[in-house]
Design goal:
The complex is a heterodimer of chains A (about 525) and B (about 325).
Chain A lengths: L1 H25 L10 E5 L4 H10 L7 E5 L2 H10 L4 E4 L6 E2 L2 E2 L7 E16 L1 E2 L2 E2 L4 E2 L1 H8 L9 H6 L11 E5 L4 H13 L1 H10 L21 E3 L1 H9 L7 E6 H7 L5 E3 L5 E2 L3 H7 L4 E2 L5 E2 L1 H4 L10 E9 L8 H15 L6 H4 L6 H11 L27 H4 L60 E3 L6 E3 L15 H34 L1
Parallel strand pairs in A: 1-2, 1-3, 9-13, 10-11, 10-12
Antiparallel strand pairs in A: 3-17, 4-5, 6-12, 6-17, 7-8, 13-14, 15-16, 18-19
Chain B lengths: L14 H39 L2 H4 L3 E2 L4 E2 L2 H32 L2 H16 L2 H27 L26 H25 L3 H9 L4 H30 L2 H6 L18 H8 L5 H31 L1 H5 L1
Antiparallel strand pairs in B: 1-2
Helix pairs in contact in B: 1-11, 3-6, 3-8, 4-6, 5-6, 6-8, 7-8, 8-11, 10-11
Classes of the chains: A alpha/beta (about 525), B mainly alpha (about 325).
Chain lengths: ~525, ~325
């Protein structure tokens, strides 16, 4: 019987040794050059960061990111538990009477990506999903302050002449955790519809003026639903049974969920969708402060007919001093990662549901990278980054070539029928559209801003439909090594599965063997 | 004549005994010290918030520590309601399972069933949470709706704002509720309750079992007259241990409920709260004072759970089955 145990043991050892050998033998050598860095924060920009950190794995960089909400990210950076944080709002904002103090460690803000805080909704009428809803700012504010409670409210009807709206209850879904999305949305409400917002805050027991807050106040009994994280609110809205829900979330979440977003009325009187180009146009109104944070009131009031009013930037908070376990080795990884996403990473932003940074912010961001201790500074020719916003003359190409909104998107009696967001493939609720122009919203597919391309793909030239001038902007595809069918990852997986099986099976087998030996010995 | 004096017993303790005694004793002491340290730590950190809030901490229904308005009333009651739903669903489930395993199941099946129940305990709570949020919620809403329509006259089953005659009535009234969170927590506490009850039932004296059967009792009669009276301590103790776990369950509840900070007695209605999920939700972004308030909430939960667990062990120890185990 001993021989059986011995065979077992031999097998185990050989499997483990083989696994270890396979691991050490086939890991790429350059992986050792980068130490892992970890960060936490915004779920608003998490989809972009998730893509970037996956992409840099091919260079051997291990960048960890926990999408736990902007407030949590800022606090973790402050207490030194993460190497970097991502947040939509800076430190120093007074929220509910408490000022968010600045961290004692040295830090700098670095813009990482732009995007639109969109309003994803789940609404059906007559068994058909509505995908072309339009909402003006005041209606949106009234929805999220509990003033409008039914979808067939006269105010919503006035915005949507082409849709037959059901007599369903409006269920606003808000974030229960401290969130940058909430801060973006409430900052907009406080700036544009202050009296409505303040009266709601008073109901919720907050002191007024309410201003920007990361924690959406919920008044019990109003039928609001609160869920943690962007995935939580988007996941709640996308459950088919939760008809009548609407939430605020970054555009990429609606795209991923396959759900439509509301077109929001801008100052020019057009209802626009937060497409990458509309966000780029909107952000032309942003005033950038010297520390690279932004003042967005110019975005809210942007009078361009293509501007999306709730456009904003997301920031990475990077350390500029060697404190809280931050080392020069970590600085090297973080710096290389930052160079990647500020340059190459930006071209993927449109496909992910974000908008790429304009050239001035990329340049300033590159200057911020130099402040990270331990970074190996690179002199990148940013004209080779293939960022769709770059042009020869310094203007924002993406914003310049953004298609003008269709006539049916103008406030008035007509309404476009095409779907929005993640539901743009399906036709909208045609209902009783009175407008004549019911074409699709994208302009013939001549621009690289169309958001259905695969990441890194796209046509090689960006042609301006007005001037006919074509500029070579399109991406050189990111080279990704073909995944070998059997690599170290697979070996590790196999070894761990075998280890788990052993852990479960070995003790009973040994017991069985010992018992049998005892019985035969009697 | 010499008076008989009892011989003095001098135990010869060899080194192994001494080492063993030292290890076990220090282990026991360390556990007690850690418990005490946790309590002291929570108390110290909580003192700032409790002194600022005074007695209002126990009756105020709000959680805005930074504006000075916060209290444990709503969250504590919410915690108890979730635990109550969980225990009242888990108790029949655990009792039935453990009786079947210990009394009815054939020997081969028995081992598999025990393994399966233990496997349930090994599933991480975040998986239960994801399952509850994405899968269970949609299927349970019609049941919640049916209960509220037919038993809505019982106050806790009422759902304000639900109109059964409105075909467009919103589904969301019945989501993210105490009820759904309670169901998920019930599944999480069933394994521990089952294994304690099964352990106790299997210890029922064989002589008494055979006596009952010999007197002509059916198997069910034997269970009623021997097993259940013998195992009542285990049933109560297991239930209270389950209750202790249910009070502290965090992530699954956090993912399902839509937190509100007023007392929500309607268990089927959207909106619930629990202390542990409140802490999980707020600690990341809390100001120093807010953190102290969360510590005060944690201290409350710590004390409540201690009482429940001590109560459970006292009951188990006093019962016939517990004394022998």
């Amino acid at each position: 019987m001993f021989s059986r145990i011995r065979v077992w043991a031999a097998t185990v050892t050989s499997v483990l040794v083989a696994g270890a050998l396979a691991l050490s033998g086939s890991l790429p050598a350059h992986a050792a050059n980068y130490v892992p860095v970890s960060g936490a924060g915004s779920s608003w920009s998490a989809n972009a960061i998730e893509q970037w950190r996956t992409n840099v794995q091919q260079y051997g960089m291990r960048v960890n990111y926990a999408s736990t909400g902007s407030s949590d990210g800022r606090n973790q950076f402050k207490s030194g538990t993460v190497d970097y944080a991502v947040s939509e709002i800076p430190y120093g904002i007074t929220d509910g009477g408490v000022t968010d103090s600045r961290p004692t460690r040295g830090f700098a803000y670095m813009p990482i990506v732009a995007g639109g805080t969109s309003f994803m909704y789940n609404l059906t009428s007559g068994g058909k999903q509505i995908t072309n809803l339009r909402l003006s700012g005041e209606v949106l504010t009234k929805i999220f302050t509990g003033k409008i409670t039914k979808w067939n409210d006269a105010a919503i009807k006035a915005d949507n002449p082409g849709i037959t709206l059901p007599a369903r209850q409006v269920v606003p879904v808000v974030r229960s955790d401290g969130s940058g999305s909430t801060a973006q949305f409430t900052a907009w409400m406080a700036s544009q519809h202050q009296s409505l917002w303040d009266s709601y805050c008073r109901e919720a027991g907050r002191s007024v003026p309410c201003g920007t807050t990361s924690n959406f106040p919920v008044v019990a009994g109003k039928g609001f639903v609160a869920q943690p994280n962007s995935t939580g609110v988007a996941g709640y809205v996308k459950q088919r049974a939760n008809d009548g829900t609407i939430t605020y979330v970054e555009y990429s979440y609606a795209k991923n969920a396959g759900f439509p977003v509301a077109k929001v009325l801008n100052k020019a009187g057009y209802f626009v969708e937060p497409t990458p180009s509309n966000v780029a146009v909107g952000l032309l109104g942003a005033r950038i402060n010297t520390d690279l944070t932004s003042n967005l009131s110019g975005v809210y009031n942007n009078s361009d007919s293509r501007a999306y009013p709730l456009s904003s930037y997301s920031y990475m908070i990077v350390p500029t001093a060697l404190q809280n376990n931050f080392t020069t080795d970590k600085g090297k990884t973080l710096g290389a990662f930052a160079y990647y996403f500020l340059c190459e990473g930006q071209q993927q932003a449109p496909a992910l549901g974000y908008s790429p940074l304009p050239i001035n912010l990329v340049k300033s961001g590159m200057d911020q990278i130099k402040k990270i201790p331990g970074v190996s500074a690179q002199s990148i020719d940013i004209s080779k980054c293939n960022n769709p916003t770059f042009s020869k003359d310094g203007t924002n190409t993406l914003a310049k070539s953004a298609p003008a909104p269709q006539a049916c998107d103008k406030q008035g009696s007509s309404q476009c029928a095409a779907g929005t967001g993640g539901a743009s493939d399906s036709g909208g609720n045609t209902g009783t559209t009175t407008g004549t122009d019911t074409g699709s919203t994208t302009d013939g597919g001549t621009t690289t801003t169309s958001n259905n391309g695969a990441i890194g793909a796209g046509s090689a030239y960006d042609c301006n439909p007005d001037t006919g001038v074509c500029v070579a902007v399109a991406a050189v595809p990111v080279t990704v090594d073909q995944q070998p069918s059997w690599g170290p990852t697979q070996t590790v997986m196999l070894v761990s599965v075998l280890g788990l099986l052993l852990l479960v099976l070995l003790p009973p087998t040994v017991v069985q063997v010992i018992r049998q030996r005892r019985e035969s010995g009697k | 004549m010499t008076i008989d004096t009892p011989r003095k017993l001098t135990g010869v303790r060899d080194r192994v005994d001494l080492i063993y005694r030292g290890v076990t004793r220090s282990g026991g002491i360390i556990v007690l010290v850690i418990m005490l340290a946790i309590g002291v730590f929570l108390g110290l950190r909580a003192s700032q918030a409790i002194t600022a809030d005074g007695w209002a901490f126990f009756w105020q229904q709000a959680w805005e520590p930074d504006s000075g308005k916060f209290g444990i009333a709503a969250v504590l009651i919410g915690t108890f309601l979730i635990a109550l739903v969980a225990v009242s669903l888990a108790l029949p489930m655990a009792l039935g399972t453990s009786l079947y395993i210990s009394e009815y199941a054939p020997l081969g099946l028995k081992r598999t069933l025990i393994g399966l129940v233990d496997l349930m305990a090994a599933i991480p709570s975040v998986v239960y949470g994801l399952w509850g949020f994405f899968a269970l919620q949609n299927s349970i809403v019609p049941i919640a709706r049916w209960i509220s329509q037919n038993f809505g006259w019982i106050p806790i089953f009422a759902v304000t704002g639900a109109d059964p005659n409105d075909p467009l009535a919103t589904n969301t009234l019945f989501t993210s509720s105490t009820f759904i969170a309670g169901i998920v927590v019930a599944l999480m506490i069933t394994p521990i309750m089952t294994s304690i009850m099964r352990e106790v039932f299997s210890q029922a004296p064989i002589g008494e079992r055979e006596g009952a059967l010999g007197l002509g009792a059916t198997r069910w009669g034997m269970i009623r007259s021997v097993i259940l009276p013998f195992g009542v301590g285990g049933i109560i103790g297991g239930t209270m241990l389950g209750l202790g776990r249910a009070l502290g369950e965090t992530i699954a509840v956090y993912m399902i409920i839509s937190p509100i900070f007023v007392i929500q007695p309607h268990i089927l209605q959207n909106g619930a709260s629990s202390i542990s999920s409140l802490i999980a939700l707020k600690y990341g972004e809390a100001s120093p004072f807010g953190m102290s308030a969360l510590m005060a909430a944690g201290l409350t939960l710590f004390i409540v759970t201690l009482i429940v667990n001590f109560g459970a062990s006292a009951i188990v120890a006093r019962s016939r089955s517990g004394a022998s185990s």
